[in-house]
Sequence to fold (1079 residues):
Amino acid sequence: MVTHESGAVHAHAAPTGFIWKYIFSTDHKIIGIQYILLALVSAFVGMFLSVLMRIHLVWPNAKLPFIAGGVMTPEQYLALLTMHGSIMVFMVLTTAPQSGFGNYFLPIQIGAADMAFPVINMLSFWITFLSLLVMLAAFFVVGGAPISGWTAYPPLSALGEIAGPGQGAGQTLWVIGVAIFCGASLMGALNFITTTIDLRTKGMSLMRMPLTVWAWFLTAILGLLAFGVLLAACILLLLDRTAMTSFFIPGGLVITDQQVAHKGGSTLLWQHLFWFFGHPEVYIAILPGMGVTSHMLSTFARKPVFGYRAMVYAMCSIGFLGFCVWGHHMFVSGMSPYSALAFSLLTMSIGVPSAIKTFNWLGTLWGGQIRFTTAMLFALGFVSLFVSGGLSGLFLAQPAIDLYFHDTYFVVGHFHLIMGVAAIFGMFSALFFWFPKMFGRHLNEPLGKLHFWITFIGVYAIFMPMHYLGMAGHPRRYSDLSGANFLGPLMPVQRFISIAAFLTIAVQFIFLINFLWSLKFGKKAEKNPWEATTLEWTIPSPPPHDNFAGVEPVIYRAAYEYAQPGAVEDYVPQHLAPEQVARAR
Amino acid sequence: MRRKKACAGSTTVAVSLAIFLVIFTAITLYTFFAKTWWFPDPITTFGRDIDQQFLRTLVITGIVFVLSQLGLAWVIFRYRGRGQRAQHIEGNLTMEVVWTLATLVLFVGLGVYAERAWAEVHFRSAVPGAVQIEVTGQQFVWNFRYPGPDGKFGRLDPKLVNASGGNPLGLDPTDPAGKDDLVVPVVAVPVNREVELLIRSQDVTHSFFVRELRLKQDAVPGLLIRIHFSATQTGQYEIPCAELCGLGHYRMRSFLTVMPQADYDKWLADQAAANQ
Amino acid sequence: MPATLTNKLELIRSGKGGGTGPPAGGDDDGGSGRGGRARVPRRAYFTGVSLGLAAILMFFMALTSSYIVRKGLGGDWQPVRLPGILWLNTLVLLASSASIEVARRKLGTGATESFRRWWGITTGLGLLFLMGQVMAWRHLAAAGVFLASNPASSFFYVLTAAHGAHLLGGVVVLFYVAFRAGQRSHITQGTAAELASIYWHFMDGLWVFLFLLLNLGR
Fold:
């Protein structure tokens, strides 16, 4: 850290020394990369867990590596399932799109030199990292990782070891890890919102912000309002587990012939608190992807975003409605059937802004001049996945139909497509697009395209058949198909899914190789290789420590001025003064 | 200024992506039409309502699905970069209003329409004289309790629960109402008669699910939840647990047998005799 | 455990100078873009504190709505007999709000000495409140009412502890504002005092709300 006297002209000198520069850096760009790396590692861990699960599901007697005893037991399966969900949701889908890319590009896209509170930013990364360590530690304690799923419904999650292996120390670590994560996310959200509100450069009005910035901004608001609630729920659960309180544990329970001393709590209370966080969490994962997709479609179709304002309002209403629909996760929980109806109609109405987004994306492509870069391919894939995954939501939003589909593979297919894969496509798109800016080199395009094609076909091959399993009534979170007779005939579908999953996951190594190889040997990037309009393309690749070298950019126009009539170039960057724009005669 | 590279090969990519989307849409449509994997036939009237509502939703979402995916395929193909200049379109208010209103009416209307089947299950309570059966979930079995000839369930006491000792529910032997209670691990119900289930759990959350009934209800510890149905088809149906309840979740299963009234009476008598 | 968690919230809440702020160019210039680039305009700190308070509010809303829902379930809910000292504590906290306001205005008029005095009084009142809360707990414990005794007492302890932890964070900030190394900081003492007083008033109001809830919603 450097001290500064009052009135210093410019004060954002780069730190020196490896530790301050790369480890405990307060530079939002380094922090963004740290988040992306954390998500990358977590994603591979999460995928590895799913490979083990998929093998066990279709070859129950297979000897597996990393599994104590070789052949997986039901509790080991559930432990992997819990950790797969938790790692993917918290450490991948919440970190990379928002804290990763958002950290790196939000300040640059609004013309700021850094986040509003850089030290808080640094702390929020390291606290996130700590929470990952705490969560992973659950694997290495007596009893192993918890088996109650990422939703951790009490009493299963509250009763301790008596409820099952992993429900002792493992579950406690899980709860602590999630609580720590809440703290980190709150710090991040606060930073994002303040930065967007107060650090926009001259001329960057709200309606001139890139849609990516809008998405990160709204996501941060969702995070700010949602994570405090999960934190409260985690504290109560922790007290139930360690201090004999009874917030979530009803009285008179008997488990394996042993009486439980707790009395008078409500298990539904946890579900309400959890889903009050949990549903906005879905949008925390997907909104940045929506922003990125809009950004890519406009950039690579060489057209302004179709209905920019409608896109902003649609994201706002998705965010707002996201807080009003948590009950649709609880249709069969014994909640009042009348409130189920209200939740249902509110949920159905989320379909409206979602449809606006889809149609406006098609409108953005319409009449364009599409350049099929890898980034664009992933964005197009996002649109397709968003439609496929979103429409199945309309079934689940109706309580009567959900009576059948709740907790079946239909739900698994639905949320993996919309929340998991679509969000990850958003990340891939963002990475292929911004990699040149971040590292000064391009990712390899042919490898990227190969990766895209197999992944795109693969994810559909994995997750579409899950809808059919759900229609046949296959409950989720079953470690074995031997438990019910009607599951036997579904084995071929499960096998198909497993094989598709192995292929798709194998292909991710192409991406990994591409990533590592391109860092060193990728094609050198120019300042603005994609001929894009937003501010990050006005500065060198990679950008200097303080982004704009002390000069405050001035914004003259909206974010997506492509194909402007009268302009020579087919794109007019935001920072070009009107007199600098080359006009056609 | 236009760089040639940006357009090179775009036709191949555009055509392949468009073709993939068309094939994907076709396969998806086919699997739904062919009904290769489908619901088992429903055995309740509201089950048939639910299936109809499912079909209605399937048709509407299907149309949106096909239009969107094929629309995407079309714009990808039609507007692939060939050196043309993109049109300058910033939006179209009329169209945006039209599709906003259209989806609003379609989706919310669908939601309102779905109310009927839901109301049938949840808004009305069971008719008087319905067969009452208490369903208890516990790690990892279902237990079903019939009130016996007196029509009254006896008192339960958690202190007396002893599954290995033959009292899995903790039936209080001092309560006369409980003397004739019948506790069995499988459930039988008479056909075409309304049955009311009183669903509870002794330890963690379970979920009672019978696919053919189109009915699922969590068994929530601390709550007694009532649901009712009237099965119209005799036969044996599986009851898998549908809410993660621990390591034995996957094998927590029982059977529901729907039988004619006479068989049902005999079954009850046999069970009662065997229980003595 | 909750203490360490809330410490994190404190960091959010404080969202201000010293160790947690960025190196700034012009000190506290009130607006960006003039005279070189002030990294962070003064209003950003106010935004940050308000957002932190919003997050804290959501946290307490979750707890209090759980309280109301749980109480509505009835059953074994046995109302906690609130120790009388809580009334005294409430008065102490209200008084501290008044004194911090006086201190802030004194600083505005440049009366540094009396600012220090009133600021010190506020800090003292804050500590007094916390001690009073601990005494209230000891009263209850002596009466055999513990955290796990029944749902009402569980909520009582959780709510008061959560509020106490946040207030303790506030006291730390008060100390910090009084003894900060002004030169190294990015905001003036005036701004810091204003931010701290916003937080302090909020914690005061929050306590009044919780106290009313505990009293009326028994």
